[in-house]
């Protein structure tokens, strides 16, 4: 009898976290590394949010809270959904967890039985398939290539649905591609879902506020109210308010699901940090100026990175609608050999050679379920991005 659970054999560590760890190791060795693998804003948490956390400590809000969130925060989340998404929820339909990842995981643990299928458009956030596997389900990746702007089409969705399908996981704007679904594209998907009443929707809206130009963000239950009772709408404060380390995510959905998720959470982590909850309350109820300021910075960086990468031989970089990632193709480099002697057989070989030969850390596309691509997070300074793009260009020019 083995010591470790057989479940662990079905999953793998997060490649993005692994690359971030590798960057830290190389920097500790004194190497000149530009890390473009971590998906977190480089800005400080706004001061009024930090002040609220300090005030919460001084006020003695340092004890256990209700397992899935304090009442004022749940009320603020309901107000946020009404204000931003035209969605009407009660506090009993809201769950607060230790980051958006826990909300997603709790929902999967609360609903999946062995053999239940979860449709996941690819490229996808690296954790989706493994969370499904940990919960006993079967991930069903659906490739969504650059020729369809990395979007799931209604035809592909309809073809992927079976009698065992329980969830569709939909991330817009997307990590890793930055692709977002406008109202027409979202309506096309919700029309398909109306024909399949056994399929629920897990809408991961974590990058909601990071959309560029005149793009209008929408979420499935907003576009099609008839799906509201079959939808878990997930969001958080990590990306919108530069609060990744505070670990607060939330979701809203049917009360039966929210109660089941609370039971899972009660037997795993219990409540999220009390101090972080009060900070999140200040984020949602306080001034929202920071969002527009950070969005403008990210749009400027997006344009810098897209233009720079498209000037690199062998790379084709689409312009994303949101988030702070690009997902360029390296199809033009496959089969070439780098100046350091590495054959670029696939996107993992490309990412490894790029790190070893130039000190630029990116994440290879196979980790996100679609090759030959790589992901860059442009949530870092303009100066570092300019330097990184110059190094990537030299690397590409050296391939033959």
From TrEMBL:
PROSITE patterns: AA_TRANSFER_CLASS_1
Family affiliation: Belongs to the class-I pyridoxal-phosphate-dependent aminotransferase family.
Record-annotated Aminotransferase class I/classII large domain positions: 31-392
Organism: Paracoccus tegillarcae
Name of protein: Aminotransferase
TM helices/strands, residue ranges: none
Cofactor(s) it depends on: pyridoxal 5'-phosphate
Entry EC no(s): 2.6.1.-
Gene3D superfamilies: Aspartate Aminotransferase, domain 1, Type I PLP-dependent aspartate aminotransferase-like (Major domain)
